[in-house]
Backbone:
């Protein structure tokens, strides 16, 4: 995502965008599993993001 992206206004929209981002990264061959620190400057909170692959549900 870039600074030019429109803002996210709901949890559902956040989920949809995050899902699309992870899908694009995975299909591009990027190992998306892991943890990243997201530092956002003094005016915004910092985040620790952890992505873990889950087992697919069956049935």
Residues:
């Amino acid at each position: 995502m870039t600074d030019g992206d429109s803002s996210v206004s709901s949890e559902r929209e956040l989920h949809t965008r995050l899902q699309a981002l992870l899908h694009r990264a995975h299909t591009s061959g990027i190992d998306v599993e892991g943890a990243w620190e997201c530092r956002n400057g003094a005016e915004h909170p910092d985040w620790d993001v952890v992505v873990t692959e889950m087992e697919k549900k069956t049935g």
Notes: The mean pLDDT is 91.
